[in-house]
Design a protein that fits this description.
Blueprint lengths: L7 E5 L4 E5 L8 H15 L8 E5 H14 L6 E3 L6 H10 L2 E4 L2 H8 L8 E3 L6 H10 L3 E4 L2 H10 L4 E6 L8 E3 L9 H13 L3 E7 L3 E3 L4 H18 L7 E3 L9 H16 L6 E3 L4 H4 L3 E6 L25 E3 L16 E6 L8 E8 L7 E5 L21
Parallel strand pairs: 4-5, 5-6, 7-8, 8-10, 10-12, 12-13
Antiparallel strand pairs: 1-2, 1-3, 3-14, 9-11, 14-18, 15-18, 16-17
Helix pairs in contact: 2-3, 7-8, 8-9
Bound molecules: pyridoxal-5'-phosphate.
The site of pyridoxal-5'-phosphate has 17 residues, from helix 10.
Amino acid sequence: EAPAAMRAVLEVPGVTGQEVLRLPCDAANAKDAVTGLVRRIITTGDPPVTSAFNVLDLGKVAELFAAWRRGLKGVPPYYAVKCNSNPALLGALAALGSRFDCASPAEMDAVLALGVTADRIIYANPCKPESHIAYAASVGVGVATFDSVEELRKIKRFHPGCKLLLRLKVPDAGDAARWDLGTKYGALEDEVAPLLLAAQSAGLAVWGVAFHVGSEVSRVGVYDAAVQAARTAFAAAAALGMPRMHVLDIGGGFAAASFKDACAVINAALARHFGDMPDVEVIGEPGRYFAETPFALAARVCASTGDDGFYGTLCCVQHGYVPRPVPVAAACHSAADQRGGETRHLSTVFGPTCDSLDVVVQGYPLPELGIGDWLVFHDVGAYTTELSCNFNGFSAAEM
Ligand code: PLP
């Protein structure tokens, strides 16, 4: 449990900078407490908010970290920075002892700037520009993934001392998760031996294998097939007479809601397929698991639109996020969220750009809202601000 003083971080862009606030709440009522915090801020005007802002619940991050440790004992998480590179989140994770999965020099810099040492970073991008590989070498990031002969050639030239993990395509994973990463990445079963041989003849060290079952996994049983495929790759390396591999990277895909079920499958699969190799170091690369639920967005009603939307933080609606906005009234209005008995209308909430596709929800029951009222969206931390753009000159809520 995080100390109460760490419960929430609030950043109101351009007004207050970043503030750490104490929220008297526990895990069970954290979302209500965050909504209450937004209500308090907009009704007191302290700090004076005029545009969308995010609230990061650091206590939630600490809870998730503790749950990871309990669920996947001895499996260090390498947080996937691509999911949300918010500095307060990265700082909290670093303080909790997380390691990091970086896919580019910019992500490495963000993590190194926190004082995290390069040996706690994995360069988990199977397709890397040459200049990025050279950068990884220059800052001492020494473990990377690959899934092609071309990648081996580049690594041989620009980072020959790099330790490698062969990224596998997970069999039959297409429908297991919301985002199927297997269409782009991963060696097929019959490519494994040739790639291992190619690495060996290039004099490159293959430390182990990696996989990713796809982001936001719904069919958690897929982890079993993935661990089994990894074990087959370990056997292939042994059959080729290669030095013993000793790292298994189980990737990401985890969602907080199904984490326990995923852990049960993974722990059983590790016992079944790697029970005879207790020295194998198992690592993970969770992104969404740590970033999604700790963030809430407060967006202001500024016309018949909100001031954040489809091209901003709420770009996650394009990827299946189902928003359930909580209305919060501004002081100057009859309290929309206190009109409990009042009629709710099936409403459309638009984002601020001139595009009619900029729709956040449709047919959602809301009380009548006025300019200056607010909507709070919970669980908006995964692939949101990170994917947003400045279309029409509007930017996502900062922090
Ligand atoms: N590792 C790699 C290589 C990825 O590409 C991703 C997401 O794209 C992640 C980890 C994080 O995945 P997730 O957010 O589903 O945990």
